[in-house]
Task: inverse folding
């Protein structure tokens, strides 16, 4: 079912993170290998690499009864919850929010693991039997670190740019926050390094690791985002286009739209980066953290917020009224995105539920309680990148090229019927506007990881929309949604509050102050 399972030697995670806390004077023989002895050959270096990928699990799974999906799903206008959630209606959003602290901490754990392995690669080049793998491994770590920097900047605007391994209490631990777009700039530098180093592909047994076209796709995203925040910067749009045109012709949209969310079509020609959801060979336990030797938590992805189940954390996530109304009824993407149901749990939303990852057999529960899924979360796919390129083409006076990218998406949608016959919608456009691209991104990418809210914020920065004028109806809520639990305000909620743990533990962050309005 999956070519590359991240089966991890979890013991190394402790070695990487906590070895420096050991007292040199202890005369008790260690029960595990020392870090100084561990990285003795290329195979062990690859185990260290996989330990970095494994930390991504924390962002998409149910480990330790703490699924963090609310932050990367709910802000925006494409989805909504049946229960009042601060990530959904913004009321009472504060730095003490558990999800905000969790995601921030896990992203920095991910960054420190990447920094650790970059250090180890430099220290242990002599153990590699395949010298090309040295650059490939460095590229992987730049890719993951750059992606983490991008997410931190997109949610919080300012955060410490940590590019060296943190090994103990030192000035490195108290790094001041970035200013302006400095962290986004760092993400771009990392991803450009990755683009130069990553292989075009991996052996079949290694499918799922970061590769060259994935870095190119990320750079398209990063440069279009930065162009928006720089008021439509032509140079950044130009860089996005240049990287887009470097993507291999082997990268193609898959025939059926729904294949992008089906475990039977993972890591396909459209996929540029996925979380490799998996199942531990021994019994998984979703109530445990995934970092402990022998009793690891789950390695799967959490989608139960899309189902009426005891595992959904007490809140369902459903399509917004805005999303429901955005589709032509004849668009084959509609039944692959949301469906009507007679289950009364969805009555709050007119009886519609999101089905992208849970449609039919796609819901592939694994582990104790069947809480998680072995269906990969798609983090970046070519359709996203093509629509970003369409924006860049349109904003650099190449409307015909923009039109081609948008119509490619619409053509695939039109032929995504169950039998492959052509549907009546969506028809090809004869001309394209920015509004057309924004509407197409809503339909094509609805409910996918970390897309819609970031889109709305950058379009607001570029002046395509004005979120300060948006009402709860603009966000997809019904007119009778209670005003006393709706709290969106600009500019406050364009950023998340800095986590209270960071403010408490980093005096330089505390000195810089909380994000405005919190």
Result:
């Amino acid at each position: 079912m999956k070519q590359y399972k991240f089966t991890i030697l979890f013991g190394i995670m402790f070695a990487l993170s906590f070895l420096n806390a050991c007292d040199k004077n202890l005369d008790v023989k260690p029960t595990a290998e020392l870090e100084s002895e561990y990285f003795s050959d290329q195979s062990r270096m690859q185990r260290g690499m996989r330990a970095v990928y494994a930390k991504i699990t924390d962002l998409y799974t149910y480990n330790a009864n703490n699924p963090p999906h609310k932050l990367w799903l709910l802000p925006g206008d494409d989805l909504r919850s049946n229960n009042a959630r601060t990530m959904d209606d913004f009321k009472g959003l504060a730095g003490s929010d558990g999800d905000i602290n969790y995601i921030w901490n896990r992203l920095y754990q991910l960054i420190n693991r990447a920094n650790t392995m970059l250090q180890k690669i430099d220290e242990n080049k002599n153990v590699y039997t395949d010298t090309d793998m040295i650059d490939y491994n460095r590229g992987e770590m730049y890719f993951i670190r750059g992606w983490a920097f991008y997410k931190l900047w997109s949610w919080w605007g300012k955060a410490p740019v940590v590019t060296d391994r943190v090994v103990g209490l030192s000035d490195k631990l108290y790094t001041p926050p970035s200013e302006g777009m400095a962290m986004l700039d760092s993400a771009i530098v990392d991803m450009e390094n990755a683009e130069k180093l990553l292989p075009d592909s991996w052996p079949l047994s290694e499918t799922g690791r970061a590769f060259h076209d994935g870095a190119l796709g990320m750079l398209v995203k990063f440069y279009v985002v930065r162009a928006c925040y720089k008021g439509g910067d032509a140079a950044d749009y130009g860089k996005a286009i240049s990287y887009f045109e470097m993507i291999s012709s082997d990268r193609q949209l898959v025939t059926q739209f729904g294949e992008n969310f089906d475990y039977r079509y993972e890591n396909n020609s459209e996929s540029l980066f996925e979380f490799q959801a998996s199942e531990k060979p021994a019994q998984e336990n979703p109530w445990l953290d995934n970092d402990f030797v022998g009793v690891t938590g789950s390695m799967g992805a959490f989608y139960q917020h899309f189902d009426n189940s005891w595992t959904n954390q007490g809140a369902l996530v459903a399509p917004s009224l805005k999303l429901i109304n955005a589709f032509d009824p004849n668009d084959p993407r509609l039944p692959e995105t949301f469906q009507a149901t007679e289950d009364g749990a969805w009555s709050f939303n007119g009886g519609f539920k999101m089905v992208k990852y849970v449609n039919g057999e796609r819901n592939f529960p694994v582990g104790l309680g069947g809480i998680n899924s072995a269906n990969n979360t798609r983090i970046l796919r070519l359709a996203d990148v093509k629509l970003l390129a369409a924006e860049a083409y349109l904003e650099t006076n190449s409307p015909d090229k923009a039109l081609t990218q948008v119509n490619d998406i619409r053509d695939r949608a039109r032929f995504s019927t169950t039998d492959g016959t052509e549907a009546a919608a969506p028809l090809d456009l004869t001309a394209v506007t920015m509004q057309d691209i924004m509407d197409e991104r809503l339909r094509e990418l609805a409910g996918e990881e970390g897309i819609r809210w970031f889109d709305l914020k950058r379009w607001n920065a570029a002046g395509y929309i004005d979120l300060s004028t948006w009402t709860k109806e603009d966000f997809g809520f019904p007119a009778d949604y209670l005003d006393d639990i709706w709290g969106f305000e600009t500019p406050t909620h364009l950023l998340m509050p800095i986590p209270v743990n960071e403010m408490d533990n980093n005096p330089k962050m505390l000195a810089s102050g909380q994000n405005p309005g919190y």
About this structure: Residues 1-29 have pLDDT under 50 and may be disordered. The longest strand covers residues 271-275. Residues 98-123 form the longest helix (26 residues).
